[in-house]
Design goal:
Layout (H helix, E strand, L loop, with lengths): L2 E8 L2 H17 L3 E8 L2 H4 L16 H8 L5 E5 L11 E6 L7 E5 L13 E3 L3 H10 L4 E3 L5 H9 L5 E5 H6 L8 E5 L13 E6 L3 H10 L2 H17 L7 E8 L2 E8 L8 E8 L6 H11 L2 H12 L9
Parallel strand pairs: 1-2, 1-3, 6-7, 6-8
Antiparallel strand pairs: 3-10, 4-10, 5-8, 5-9, 11-12, 12-13
Length: 320
């Protein structure tokens, strides 16, 4: 009898691409294991008319998958790591992080070639408070408008002229081969638009005492990505930043050194706090906690509390 692994996945197009990608990797490395998918519609995929932060944040994309695993309906789940809360429920563990791909945010437009070319007062679509904060810091003259729905819906709204431009993660569009129909795209450099925790990596969550799932997951883990993303997750956990807090953080490796950059502030691009810490790879493990302590000492918690209170107030008429 061959062994079996069931992967829990969301039903969205990108989630399915990711799950099939991992399925193929497992089948290549472990030809004797039979791999199948358990497709689940998450609440985050059902509620498309409100910003994520208002329906309970990122956990909405992982909760149903975690419940399915705890009920014994799957051995492991494939998540976009940026959607995985820093708290993992009892009985489950985040067992592997896949090799990180391109983390860039992407500017997309049918009318303008670059972000710099946008005229004053141009309407830009994004619901991410992290992007909102960084965009308005660079271009306070832009009008930002909410952008919900799956990737295809967002691209359709752009094509129909509802927005002059929108900002999305490059990696998802590349994986789904959706870039060819957009006349103008511009990759935003990471120093211009710092990504969120875990961007462009997949998190493999398993049932904690499942030895087969653990063996499979360990094979999918990328040590360098695991180190960098753990620094990001430690930072987010330590400052307790929820989904409605405008926080950007990114750790990356250069030669043998880890560089960790953080930015937080108000969604309107004001009251920005920025910090960078470096450490040699062997001593980098505690960098996330160290950064959090540094930022907290500078008043980050009070700032974030205020930022969250103002994040979705009515004084933001752009939320159409």
């Amino acid at each position: 009898m061959g062994q079996k692994i069931v992967i829990a996945t969301r039903k969205s197009q990108l989630a399915l691409w990711q799950a099939y990608h991992i399925k193929a990797q497992i089948e290549k490395e472990f030809p004797d294991i039979e791999v199948s998918l358990n497709e689940i519609v998450s609440n985050g995929d059902k509620v498309l008319d409100r910003p994520l932060a208002l329906i309970g944040g990122k956990g909405h994309f992982t909760k149903e998958l975690e419940e399915a695993m705890l009920r014994g309906e799957a051995n492991l789940a494939v998540h976009s790591l940026k959607d995985v809360p820093t708290y993992i429920p009892d009985g489950l563990e985040l067992a592997a992080i896949t090799k990180r791909e391109d983390q860039s945010d992407l500017f997309l437009s049918h009318k303008y070639a670059t972000l710099e070319e946008l005229p004053k007062g141009a309407v830009v679509g994004t619901t991410s408070l992290r992007r909102r904060m960084q965009l308005l810091r660079m271009r306070p003259d832009l009008r930002l408008k909410d952008l919900r729905g799956n990737v295809n819906t967002r691209l359709r709204k752009l094509a129909e002229g509802e927005y002059d431009a929108i900002i999305l993660a490059y990696i998802g569009l590349k994986r789904l081969d959706l870039l060819k129909d957009i006349p103008h795209t511009q990759k935003l450099p990471l120093e211009m638009m710092i990504p969120p925790m875990g961007q462009a990596s997949l998190g493999i969550e398993i049932v904690a005492n499942d030895s087969l799932a653990k063996r499979v997951a360990e094979n999918l883990n990328d040590a360098q990505t695991a180190l960098c993303t753990q620094i990001e997750r430690d930072f987010i956990a330590a400052i307790g930043a929820g989904c409605s807090a405008p926080v950007a953080c990114n750790a990356y490796m250069q030669d043998n050194e880890v560089i960790f950059r953080v930015m937080l502030g108000f969604p309107d691009g004001s009251r920005i706090m920025q910090q960078e810490l470096n450490a040699m790879k062997d001593e980098a493990k505690g960098l996330g906690k160290k950064m959090a302590e540094l930022m907290i000492a500078q008043g980050a918690l009070e700032l974030l509390e205020e930022a969250e209170e103002t994040a979705f107030k009515d004084e933001m008429p752009q939320r159409l």
